[in-house]
Amino acid sequence: MAIESEVVVVGGGLAGGFAALAAAREGADTRLLSYKQSTLAQASGLVDVLGYAPDGDGAAADPFEVIPALPDEHPYRTVGVGGVREAMAAFDEVTDRYRGAHTDRNALLPTHGGTVKPTARYPASTAAGVASDERDALLVGFEALVDFDAPHAATHLENAGVPFEVAGATIAFPGGLAADAKVTRYAKLLDEDAPVETATGATRRARNALASAVEPHLDGAERVGFPAVLGDDDPAAVRESLETELGVPVFEVPMGPPSLPGLRLEDDLYAALDAAGVSMETGNPVVGYDGEGGIESVSIDRNGARIPFAADQFVLATGGLVGKGIGSDRERVEEPIFDCHVPHAADRYEWFDTDAFGDHAFARFGLLTDGDLRPLDADGTAEFENLRAAGSVLGGYDFAAEKSGSGVSIATGHAAGAAAAEALR
Where is the FAD-dependent oxidoreductase 2 FAD-binding domain (predicted)? Predict the structure, then answer.
């Protein structure tokens, strides 16, 4: 017997989370099905709307000004500028950890690779590091945390022409963590301000010991950037302690996976889903659907048994090629759950460009939709009346080149969830 809801959302990332949240806040009995809780641990924690226009020259100063000129098939054209603004307002309600809501203009944030990234929302923990700030900066890396080479990043930032002097230093993290220590281990030591042994053999609290190790490298720097490991339970308290010890503002530099800022955002999003009354089923993949002429239920595979979940409306938010929401072999590109049409050339050699950094067609593979975000078949007709799609399962845009992945996920997720709830009335 099927477990029943009014709206079922398939996928637990930003798109699925905001779809479920929008549907629940519109009064729908909503269930979220996710094989894995989310992919936010793999994200930097920066939330982009649009960093680069597809045909633009350089970073986009105001992403909202660019949206009306995007190609018709771009998901932003479907939801419109108003829809993107509404979705970002919903994002701002979910978490108080972020800055950027005060302006339409992108902020410029340094990354762990020494690049400067335009982004619409950024964690408060990174705010003192914005590249438009002219205060000189010191970047600090840890010997055992090889993902962040602070001197290398500092050199790249200077070569990028930032309006401040930047230096890099690599130190031993107090406590002698091993090279395979998880970022959460660094964060826990700083959260708990646990006693650690310093290089001299003395025992000091972790925050004080870290500040003492950094102090000799300050050399007039007016702010200090660390890899994004400065606490998980209370990162604001960790930064405040370090700022008091060092006498200058402290900021985090966004990192690659696993990402603490991404995990913090995941915590806030799932807390909001819980508060909105969304039922959640995680840990088992959705493997198919049942229905005649429409979708009546989807089924998960739980230890070899198929468990059906019935609903009136469904939202597909399973991700793109990387997240396996879109699959491919040597012959075709497919959407594996509902077998929705994915436009692509019959000749697979047209899927990519011979230039490694060229215009690859596969980067835009995904579902095309109508104005209600319902996936379209090859004839341009809605595949199912009661199915909508959101996030990187959608086609018609290159989120990696545009730096638009988070924004598209939030905007289309919010719109799809609200439309699913509206269809119940």
Answer: 7-408
What 8-state DSSP symbol labels residue 254?
Answer: P
Q: Are 106 and 63 a contacting pair, CB within 8 Å? A: yes
DSSP 27-95: T--EEEEESSS-SGGGS-S-B-S-SS-TT-SS--S-HHHHGGGS-TTSHHHHHHHHHHHHHHHHHHHH-
pLDDT in tens, 346-371: 655 454 655 545 565 555 668 999 99
Tokens 């006693």 label which residue? 195
Query: Who's near 237: CB < 8 A, 6+ residues apart?
Result: 231
Q: Residue 370 CB: number of other CB atoms within 10 A?
A: 14
Q: Kindly state the DSSP code that residue 165 receives in the 8-state scheme.
A: -
Long-range contact pairs involving 301-310 (C-beta distance under 8 Å, separation at least 24): 307/3, 308/1, 308/2, 308/3, 309/2, 309/3, 309/4, 309/5, 309/8, 309/31, 309/33, 309/281, 310/2, 310/3, 310/4, 310/5, 310/8
How far apart CA 144 and CA 176 sit, in angstroms, is: 8
- Residue 72 near residue 113 (C-beta atoms within 8 A): no
Amino acid at 82: G
- Please give the single-letter amino acid code of residue 77: R
Asked if residue 175 has pLDDT above 90, the reply is: no
Give the pLDDT of residue 262. 93
Architecture of 3-100+262-422 per CATH? 3-Layer(bba) Sandwich (3.50)
Lowest average pLDDT, out of 35-39, 262-266, 364-368, goes to 35-39
Pair 147, 255: CB distance under 8 Å:
yes
Strand order in the sheet with 297-302: 3-4, 305-310, 297-302, 286-290
Could you give the count of Cα atoms lying within 13 Å of 129 in the half-sphere of its Cβ?
31
Please, where are the H alpha helices in 144-182? 150-159
Backbone angles phi, psi at 157, to 5 degrees: -65, -45
Written as one letter, the residue type at 34 is: S
Interval 189-209: pLDDT, tens: 999 998 988 777 788 999 999
Contact call for residues 30 and 44 (beta carbons, < 8 A): no
Report the distance separating Cα 318 and Cα 25, nearest Å: 21
- Domain-wise residue ranges, the chain: 3-100+262-422, 136-248
**Residue 289 · residue 275 · CB < 8 Å:** no
d(C-alpha 115, C-alpha 125), whole Å = 18
